[in-house]
Design brief:
The protein is an alpha+beta fold. The chain contains five helices and ten strands; from the N terminus they run H-H-E-E-E-E-H-E-E-H-H-E-E-E-E. It has one domain. This is Aminomethyltransferase.
């Protein structure tokens, strides 16, 4: 599976990952064992971890930025066919802009509407360009040991509810601030969201939604010198 540790090519890292998998909260403590949340209850995804939930068509999912500085990588997969997934490439084409705004629908790799953005109390700065962090990204940043990462959080969060996917798409990076400069260069800077800002999505099809409290602590995407934080999640009608 793209982006995951290969036990054949990375034996040392794979051994440490296998041990981690046994105790990592993404696997051992899902928000709900079957991924089905109780409506109106606020759940918290632990810092540096991920969670997967079932979002039925027509239902709302709220993400809450508890600290104001925490980025959330988010994916969605069609429950009937997980090979259909939320696609940032197709969404940018569908919308004609880089970042969705309230009232926009994000689409799948088959160009079907998956999630509608219905509310956003933040300034609306999010990212659709940057791939999820993985073990190789942290190696390039100079980290030699295993580092929590969003790709592995995706895998473990799905395993926690008994699911797997064959592909790791580019995520919708909620609250991630990566300005595109006039010369085409990108800069990784802290979020501009504030404490308890929330963003609400409506499911246009029944899907698995996976969220990762991004554990990036090398660049400034979660704030300069800040610890990574938890994210609140709530299911609504």
């Amino acid at each position: 599976m793209g982006g995951y540790i290969s036990r054949d090519r990375e034996p040392d890292l794979a051994a440490s990952f296998g041990a981690l998998e046994e105790k990592q909260l993404s696997v051992s403590q899902p928000l709900a064992r079957n991924g089905v949340l109780q409506p109106g209850k606020v759940y918290f995804i632990p810092a540096r971890c991920g969670a997967a939930v079932v979002l039925e068509k027509g239902k709302m999912l709220t993400l809450i930025n508890v600290s104001g500085l925490q980025v959330c990588d988010m994916w969605a997969f069609n429950t009937s066919d997980p090979d259909e997934f939320l696609s940032m490439e197709h969404t940018r084409t569908h919308l004609g802009r880089l970042v969705p705004v309230v009232g926009d629908s994000m689409v799948s790799n088959r160009r079907n509407e998956m999630l509608e953005l219905v509310e956003d109390t933040s300034p609306g700065v999010h990212d659709t360009l940057i791939a999820a962090c993985d073990i190789n990204r942290y190696r390039q940043l100079g980290v030699s040991e295993y580092h929590d990462n969003c790709v592995d959080n995706l895998r473990m969060a799905l395993l926690a509810i008994g699911k797997e996917v064959s592909h790791v798409p580019s995520p919708f990076n909620v609250w991630m601030n990566v300005p595109l400069d006039g010369d085409g260069s990108l800069t990784f800077v802290p979020p501009v969201a504030k404490r308890d800002d929330r963003i609400v999505f409506k499911a246009m099809m029944t899907c698995y939604v996976v969220m990762s409290c991004c554990p990036q602590d090398i660049t400034a995407v979660n704030g300069v010198g800040s610890q990574t934080e938890s994210i609140g999640v709530m299911l609504g009608d």
